[in-house]
Amino acid sequence: MSILSVCDLDVRHGLLPAVRGVSFNLAKGEVLALVGANGAGKTTLLRSVAGAHLPASGQILLHGEDVTAVPSHKRIAKGIALVPEGRRLFSQMTVEENLLLGGSAGRKGEWTVDRIFDAFPNLKPRRHAKASHLSGGEQQATAIGRALMSNPDVLLLDEVSLGLSPLVVDRVYQQLQGLLSSGTTIVLVEQDLSRAMNVASRVICMLEGNIVLDRPANGTTREDVTRAYFGLHRSTAERSVS
Ligand code: ATP
To answer: Tell me: the pLDDT tens digits for 33-68?
Structure first.
């Protein structure tokens, strides 16, 4: 059974349709890169899966259970965690306090504060530092750690590279590598196409709220994705859902 199913999802901002009739299934352990131009609807889709934005119609199923109307804090307890764009840490709280807060709404499991420090060793000496005093890379690692503390079945990562220098992004991705190969099911929104395709097992490209490409990453070229990205794909022929 799919771990996550999104069925014919429509999401609006007021009257503006941001996600239109989107459907996909995610199997356990898949790493899905969600790509597309600015305004394509990636963040809106991710926030809807996390319960931060209610869809106008359609369904979201987690382990087959309909969670479409379940509020975000209860969705965390069911196994969906979001690392939001811009990190959104509690700036006056320490690294450790942010991590513990992430654990409080979630489930018990293998992720503990000590394990987060093993996965992100640069955070350990900063455990008592306030989030506002951290570098961008440390903040991003804390935000990912905070989400992992809820021991999610599905981890949603929204633009982890945003606002970080290429060197720092390299380091964050190096640290993510263990996670990516550990069997955690991940949806990753990433502007950097090469980076996304390097780490993902599957790629979905959105254009104006629609899915215009959905393929295994293996065998999909950068050019295939670029064509879809700019709307140059061959209509339905490009869409071969796995
Ligand atoms: P980006 O890469 O720039 O974050 P995106 O693919 O994540 O883009 P969304 O942020 O989901 O796209 O935006 C989808 C559409 O919804 C865009 O037309 C955007 O202008 C609009 N939109 C997003 N957030 C809001 C909002 N809070 N209020 C009104 N419209 C919004």
So the answer is: 999 999 999 999 999 999 999 999 999 999 999 999
Residues in contact with 159: Cβ distance below 8 Å, sequence separation at least 6, in sequence order: 43, 85, 189, 190, 191
Structure token digits, residue 189: 């929104």
Amino acid at 203: V
Ligand 1 site, residue 21, Cβ cutoff 6 A: no
Q: Any idea where the domains of the chain sit in the sequence?
A: 4-238
CA-nearest residue, atom 20 of ligand 1? 39
Task: Determine which residue's CA is closest to atom 18 belonging to ligand 1.
Answer: 39
Ligand 1 pocket residue status of 18, Cβ below 6 Å:
yes
Q: How many helices (H) and strands (E) does the chain have?
A: 8, 10
Using the 8-state DSSP alphabet, how is residue 120 labeled?
Answer: S
- pTM for the model stands at 0.90
The dotted CATH code for 4-238 is: 3.40.50.300
